[in-house]
Amino acid sequence: MDEVLVAVADPTRRGILLLTRDREVAAGEIAARFPMISRPAVSQHLRVLVHAGLLDVRRDGSRRLYRLRAEGFAEAAGFLDTMWAARLDNLKREAEKEHKG
């Protein structure tokens, strides 16, 4: 889970995840969407996302195609859901106290 949270903390990586959410995208196309950073930097971001389990990579000839792995978010999403549910339970208890009081 730590690797996932670190990976999504970077805005460029979040942008890459959005690009790859609905379809496979070639590394070159991803790099073209981020002209403000070098291709080696884009490659490093892709490696981080693959290592964190958030992207699948597939070779197609000389190209590498990337696609989001939604299941890679499962553990982090479960943790956040737990935190959110606890906050909602607290809010509900406080609202019920005020309503009764």
From TrEMBL:
| SMART domains registered for this protein in UniProt | HTH_ARSR
Q: Indicate yes or no for the key word Transcription regulation.
A: yes
Task: Supply the InterPro entries for this chain.
Answer: ArsR-like_HTH, HTH_ArsR_DNA-bd_dom, HTH_MetalResp_TranReg, WH-like_DNA-bd_sf, WH_DNA-bd_sf
Q: Which residues cross the membrane?
A: none
Q: Which GO terms describe its molecular function?
A: DNA binding; DNA-binding transcription factor activity
PROSITE patterns xrefs: HTH_ARSR_2
The HTH arsR-type domain sits at 1-95
- Give the record's keywords alphabetically: DNA-binding, Transcription, Transcription regulation
Name under which the protein is recorded? Transcriptional regulator
